[in-house]
Amino acid sequence: MVLYVFRQTLREFLRSRRLLPWIFLSVLTFVLAANWRELSPTSGVLERYTSVMSVFVYRLLALASAIYTTAIVSQEVEQKTISYLLTRPIERWRLLLGRYLASVVVVGGVCMVTAFLVSSAVFAGSQVNHAGLLERDLAALGVGALAYGALFLFVSLLFNRAMLICLLFAFGWETSMPNLPGELYRVTIFSYLQGIASHPPLQAQDKLLAFVMGAIGPKTVSLAACWITMGILIVSLLAASCWWFTHFEYIAREDAE
Amino acid sequence: MIRLDHASRWYGQVIGLNDVTCQIGPGLTALLGMNGAGKTTMMRLITGQLRPTTGSVRLFGLDPFANPEVYRHLGYCPEIDSFYEHLSGRQFVRMMARLTGFSAREAEQRTTRTLERVGMADRADRRIGGYSKGMRQRIKLAQAMIHEPEVILLDEPLNGLDPVGRRRFIDLLGDLASAGACIVVSSHILYEVEQMTRSLLLLHRGRLLATGDLRVIRSLIDKHPHQVRLQTDEPRRAAELLASLPNVVSLRFTPGDEALELEVREPDKFYDALPELVLNQGLRLQGLSSPDNNLESVFKYLVEA
């Protein structure tokens, strides 16, 4: 049953009307990556790659997660179609899990394709050794789609209009916390994803660019700690979401107010 | 099949359903009440979308809230006119069948069968977004009965249906009820309910005002004046004779003396006495009607009481 829900939701999420904005953003990122040399003439190939990935692709990941994941339940509530789903003989957690996995596949897919495009644009014709860099980023993006998805799903179950909270988290919290002194970077998802991606350290940087990349403060999270933390976060938030969705009421928006 | 025991539901400071106790068995039962009476709240409690604040709701002896075991035997047709507009009617009903747990093949067969039953087979492949209100209602009914449940709850299902569609819809509900299903239909349009069933639950401001057969409910209002209109070519004489009956409360001539309007108590006794009066006194009556002989008046009486 989870598989059917997954396939049905995937079909829904992959409708051209929904996918077009992401294709546009993906192509835009590719164009930026291809022209980054003109925007930052002093940067090397690896710096260009790291900058574009950190500034655009990981932000795209957070944005897409916020939009797709909040659609899992909130959209059904707002469209008032939730009654159809919740009165079928299927456990609520299965419904939630199938829809969550579909959103993760779409978000992860969009971001991985974008990462691949960025890599192609930046490293085209370059002799620089970048072995493993894209693969690590793809892994980090996959984990990121799961982690952001789990977090935003839980938030969307708790709050009526979760999109705003998720966007504030994605672009406010995730950007500012890694730059603050001390250990605050540990309460962001972005820092762990950067740990998994293990981008090479950058030398000279524009201050604003470094801030957006969350690269101002020092971070010392081991790769193992990154994987373990993300694993725990994903499993615990998913479990909490399934429990919450099973035990609390979800009815059409206007009736809930 | 359905049992509510002192069930109440609050929305913050507002009460949606107030201490309702009732049982609903097989057959067609109408849940009647004005907008805001608590019909949808009651439907949502029965379908397990809401939990009662106090009291209990049971379907087949089980708590319906988020209970897949209950949903295997329950179909729900919500009032809200919301769909996945990009899907066709067939895709939507098939999707609901798959979510019910049927295999792809079984879901397809059931979808075809059910769409034929609700009269949508020839239009099922069009997008729902282009459907008329009546077609949307039928698709909603189709998804509710796709798994042939023992209990079907329909929230205002006749909204937007044309007279022919309405007739077909009512006949279909009658068929389902005759086959032993428990059908609960909510409505605020009383004459529609009257065409469907005599078994009623009357809700007003969250409270269950009356329950049972329409005739039983009618007995509750016997103490209230019941209006009768008599058409006769000798209204003065008729008035004189009728005034002698103990149940007649008031008499009024209509403009032009074409008819006589009476208010009577215990209308059954009045209707028993009237033929004798007509026969014994040779009173000529051209017509006899009662504006109160519909659910509207029952509702009005009980609400005002």
From TrEMBL, chain A:
Ranges annotated as spanning the membrane: 19-36, 56-74, 95-118, 138-159, 223-246
Keywords per UniProt: Membrane, Transmembrane, Transmembrane helix
Keyword Nucleotidyltransferase carried by entry: no
PANTHER family the record matches: ABC TRANSPORTER PERMEASE (PTHR43471)
Protein name: ABC transporter permease
UniProtKB/TrEMBL annotation, chain B:
Gene Ontology MF: a single term: ATP binding
Keywords, ordered alphabetically: ATP-binding, Nucleotide-binding, Transport
Source taxon at top rank: Bacteria
N-terminal signal peptide: none
Database matches in InterPro entries: AAA+_ATPase (IPR003593), ABC_transporter-like_ATP-bd (IPR003439), ABC_transporter-like_CS (IPR017871), P-loop_NTPase (IPR027417)
Sequence ranges assigned to domain ABC transporter in this UniProt record: 2-230
PANTHER family: ABC TRANSPORTER RELATED (PTHR43335:SF11), ABC TRANSPORTER, ATP-BINDING PROTEIN (PTHR43335)
Family note: Belongs to the ABC transporter superfamily.
Protein name per the record: ABC transporter ATP-binding protein
Organism: Fimbriimonas ginsengisoli
